[in-house]
Amino acid sequence: MKRKIAVLGATGSIGKNTLDVIASYPDAFEVVLLSANRELKNLLAISRTYPDAKLALADESNTSKADADKVSYWGPEGIQQAVRESGAQIVVNGIAGAPGLLPSITALETGADLALANKETIVMAGPLAFALAKTHHCRILPVDSEHSAVFQLLEAHGRDSLEEIILTASGGPFRQYTKEQLEQVTLNDALAHPTWKMGGKITIDSASLANKGLEVIEAVRLFEVPPKQVKVLVHPQSYIHSLIRLKEGSLYAQMSRPDMRVPIHNALFWPEVRYCQFGRLDLEGQSLSFEKPREDLFPMLPLAYKSAEAGSGYPAAYNAADEEAVAAFMKGQISFTDIGRVVEQVLQDQWECEELVLDSILEIDKRARSVSKNIIKELFRC
């Protein structure tokens, strides 16, 4: 019997790769919902392949009435309603940034399994998401290549024997830059990732190592380990997606070509292990290299560790500040290196909260964005 599946962020990188996987297994899934942020034309093109799927669009602007009649759900609240009414058994959340949080929460409340590429869900509200998954007897399955790798490795070797998790990073396009060169980075420079094809915000996060910082926080919460047990290693070839070290000293790695269809495939079929045609790696003639991240030049990584150590509302504040700083950089208001400066100043504020419930998380997110905008305005006269 086909599993009913909803694809959120269908026009983005994760969404397109998910639909590619689904198309490769036509007898496995029934697409019941497709959502996009504002790319209605692309969403309609995709829907021609899945004519029975309901359509949802987060942004209502610049939409003709003729096209609008084909969409069943509108706005952020409409996305949540669409998830609630879809009957999906598995929801793939490929929405970028904090807007992906509430659809994740809604999916878990329906009892659907959540194939999660939206790392902000765990960074901002991990404890809440896990509690909902437990209450509604559903699963959170990581789609990030690094966390998917760790998930597989821990499934194979068990958590009791774990000593540390090692997340790999490509190092981004500025891995070998000097401080002076980083000060001159342009938007086009930051959007040129050497390995992965992704959206603009996550590509810039990869260049600043903020993406790796978010992944550190995600790993801490997802696998319930202290920050000191999560290490980062730069691996420019991006063939090894993560490693674990066991207490007896052995290192185990998950390897494949950098292809997001691999972790998506694994999430969609878990716990079944199916043949996967994607990302197959031939090691003959390949070389692998590793180096430490340059935390002195890429402060977003150590700031993430500090946020993970502090816990409470600090990870949510880190994420909100980064999103606002990246948006300001993309508008030409601040420089690439100012991103870390803004986030550092935001984290100097107080982000403790008594209980991480949804209302308090959203309030932290809102306040951190306001603080970030004020810092950007005051320090950089934007």
Automatic annotation (TrEMBL):
Pathway in which the depicted protein is active: Isoprenoid biosynthesis; isopentenyl diphosphate biosynthesis via DXP pathway; isopentenyl diphosphate from 1-deoxy-D-xylulose 5-phosphate: step 1/6
Cofactor: Mg(2+); Mn(2+)
GO MF term (any one): isomerase activity
Every 1-deoxy-D-xylulose 5-phosphate reductoisomerase N-terminal domain range: 5-126
DXP reductoisomerase C-terminal domain segment(s): 255-370
EC number: 1.1.1.267
Catalytic activity field: 2-C-methyl-D-erythritol 4-phosphate + NADP(+) = 1-deoxy-D-xylulose 5-phosphate + NADPH + H(+)
InterPro entries cross-referenced by the UniProt entry: DXP_reductoisomerase (IPR003821), DXP_reductoisomerase_C (IPR013644), DXP_reductoisomerase_N (IPR013512), DXPR_C (IPR026877), DXPR_C_sf (IPR036169), NAD(P)-bd_dom_sf (IPR036291)
Family to which the UniProt record says this protein belongs: Belongs to the DXR family.
Function recorded in the entry: Catalyzes the NADPH-dependent rearrangement and reduction of 1-deoxy-D-xylulose-5-phosphate (DXP) to 2-C-methyl-D-erythritol 4-phosphate (MEP).
Name of the molecule in the record: 1-deoxy-D-xylulose 5-phosphate reductoisomerase
Organism: Gracilinema caldarium
Taxonomy of the source species: Bacteria, Pseudomonadati, Spirochaetota, Spirochaetia, Spirochaetales
Gene: dxr
